[in-house]
Amino acid sequence: MPTKSDSDLKVTPLDRLADRYYNYILVEKGLSKKTLSSYSRDLSRYFDYLRQQHISNVSSEDTPVIMKHLIKLRSEGLNAKSRSRHLVTLRGFYRFLVQEKVIDHDPARIIDLPKSGLKLPDVFSVEEINSLLSVPDTDKPLGNRDAAMMELLYAAGLRVSELINVKLQDVNLEACFVRVLGKGSKERIVPIGLHAREKIDDFIKSGRPLLLKKHISKFLFVARAGKPMTRQGFWKRLKEYALRAGIKKKITPHSLRHSFASHLLEGGADLRSVQIMLGHVDISTTQIYTHVAREHLRQMHTKFHPRG
After folding, report:
1. What is the mean pLDDT of residues 35-62?
2. Predicted model pTM
3. Which of 86, 199, 254, 258 is flagged as catalytic?
4. Going from the N-terminus, what domains does the chain have, and what CATH number goes with each?
5. What is the pLDDT of residue 299?
6. Annotated catalytic, 159?
């Protein structure tokens, strides 16, 4: 009996791209089921619009198409907040396609996002970060590795995809920096601090040889038998540590990146320096963290000023 082909099942190029994107945001971003469902609805609605326009795939030249879709949503009665959410979904989708080298550049980037659509990232307090980082049992190879991974993630504000791809040669412990290959294959150098250096040095000398056994790997962080760490594997471990640390907030690898940026700004770092360390091409992407820092300052003023 012949098997059904993709055409029989009506699996389109758009469907395949959507599946890849959903898997990415589930693991990389750690979004809730509710948020994933919302993204799925928005993307499905956009794909329906593309099909109505007889467009079978996406491209780097989709800016006019996206704008027409948003105009259509407005004509259908969607308010600004809902249209903003649609645009956020499309921006994330097209950024992913650029990252995966499906398209050359992001056509959604130049479309303005209404301020009402901005959502501040979740940020952990310094106390919560310290509690989290103290949980791994560094006497065990896996705990030794996890402690080094979390310290580096927070110390350098890395994306989880950047973290698992750090190679042994990318870390300079003497100079205290890590070389990162970010989105669009753009390289950046980020300081890592003494705590991360200590944990990484300990892992290289103690935990890593035990995990590698007789295998060889170019990657700094490895799983058992020398296999590379995966996004899913690290995310699972991180959630376990957060639970053991008594942290009630939802946590993803990106939470530590958000906290890295916000804590730097709260401590007085300038926006341009934080932009460079995060690897943001556009400083407007980094500016969202200034909202978090300002809120922190407002709370401190209210708490400690005599007339706060």
Report:
1. 89
2. 0.60
3. 254
4. 6-117 (1.10.150.130), 126-301 (1.10.443.10)
5. 62
6. yes
Task: Using pLDDT thresholds of 50, 70 and 90, give the confidence band for residue 93.
Answer: very high
Q: Which of 29, 95, 183, 239 is catalytic?
A: 183
Q: Is the pLDDT of residue 119 over 60?
A: no
Which one of the listed residues 69, 86, 145, 159 is annotated catalytic?
Answer: 159
Q: Enter the tokens of residue 182.
A: 């970010």
Q: Which amino acid is at 212?
A: L
Is 248 designated active site?
A: no
Can you count the helices (H) and strands (E) in the chain? 15, 3
The answer, yes or no, to whether residue 291 has pLDDT greater than 70, is no
Instruction: State yes or no: is 86 an active-site residue.
Output: no
How much is the average pLDDT of 55-69? 88
CB 258 within 8 A of CB 87: no
User: Does 257 qualify as catalytic in the annotation?
Assistant: yes
Which range among 3-17, 21-35, 165-179, 255-269 shows the weakest confidence by mean pLDDT?
Answer: 3-17
Name the active-site residue from 231, 237, 263, 280: 280
Dist. CA 151–CA 148, nearest whole Å: 5
> Across the strands, what pairs with 188?
180
DSSP for 61-126 reads T-HHHHHHHHHHHHHTT--HHHHHHHHHHHHHHHHHHHHTTSSSS-TTTTSPPPGGG--PPP---H
Partners of 189 in beta bridges: 179
Q: Among residues 83, 145, 257, 263, which one is catalytic?
A: 257
Angle CA 145–33–55, to nearest 5: 105
Do you know the residue count of the chain?
A: 308
Tell me the pLDDT tens digit for each residue of 180-225. 988 777 889 999 989 999 999 999 999 999 999 889 999 999 998 7
